[in-house]
Amino acid sequence: MSGHSTWPEWVYVGVVVALLIWVGAEAWNVERLIEHVPEDAQVIKVTGQQWFWTFEHTDGTKEIGELHLQKGKPYKFEITSKDVIHSFNIPDYVVLQDAVPGRINTVWFVPKDTGEFPIQCREYCGLIHYNMRGTLYVEDTA
Amino acid sequence: MKKIVGLSCILTILLVIPTMQYVLAQDAPGEYLDRRVEIWNLFFRMMTVAFVIGAVVSGTLIWLVWRFRESNPKAKPTKYEEAGEW
């Protein structure tokens, strides 16, 4: 070959490989952390259908288009759809999960601030997709 | 010595930092992880790395083009150019 020193190239390759591994490990670790559902999380069944959201609490009460939760408590959403693919999204809490017919997807979170937060569909699901909205009401724990 | 320093740097990045984060991230009872914080922090860490690498790579390219341009006073012909083979 050319006979020139190749160590800078090996250093470059090493740095690139180390960075790629670091990026993968960090992402994997954060994913693992946020997917670990607390044992005391309350289950909320979320059903998407054209073009509204239905929420069912553990005691059987149902809400349509709005969801009332308590501040500081963990909630696990079990998300599904009755018709086409939707995507359940609470932007303020970085909650985003697809709602797929025949499948239950889960995501959990803890509301840390009281107030009203928008819920929306994040997957184009038909004519009135733009208006498939709801409201999350986070109330102080009584 | 240099090899040891290099190896320790790589091992620190790969093993020690994630382990420390894992240990420090253990939930205390009654405290829950905030996914907003975790996800946005990951995003900011990744953006920091991406911008630093972008700056280093583009800086290297700019320096390379500037330093080895034909009109640079320090430019020397390569051995092929000297021998008239190029």
Give an overview in words:
The longest helix of chain A has 29 residues, at 7-35. Chain A is elongated and about 75 Å long. Chain A folds into 2 domains: 1-36; 42-139, Cupredoxins -  blue copper proteins (Immunoglobulin-like). Chain A has 1 helix and 10 strands; from the N terminus they run αββββββββββ. In chain A, strands 3-2-1-5-8 form a 5-stranded mixed sheet, with no helix packed on it. Chain A has a 5-stranded mixed sheet with strand order 4-10-9-6-7, with no helix packed on it. Chain A has one helix at 7-35, and strands at residues 42-49, 52-56, 62-64, 66-70, 75-81, 86-90, 95-99, 105-109, 115-121, 133-139. Chain A has 142 residues and is an alpha+beta fold. Chain B has one domain. The relative contact order of chain B is 0.04. Chain B is mostly helical and 86 residues long. The mean pLDDT of chain B is 83. The interface between A and B is medium-sized, with 23 and 23 residues.
- Looking at how many chains there are and whether they match, the oligomeric state comes to heterodimer
The figure for the number of domains of chain A is 2
Strand order of the largest sheet of chain A: 3-2-1-5-8
Strand residue content of chain B: under 5%
- Quote the average pLDDT of chain A: 94
Helix content of chain A: 10-25%
- Radius of gyration of chain A (CA) equals 21 Å
Major protein interface: A-B, 23 and 23 residues
The helix-strand sequence of chain B is: HHH
Helix content of chain B: 55-70%
Features:
heterodimer, A: 142 residues, alpha+beta, Immunoglobulin-like, five-stranded mixed sheet, 1 helix, 10 strands, elongated, B: 86 residues, mainly alpha, 3 helices, 0% strand
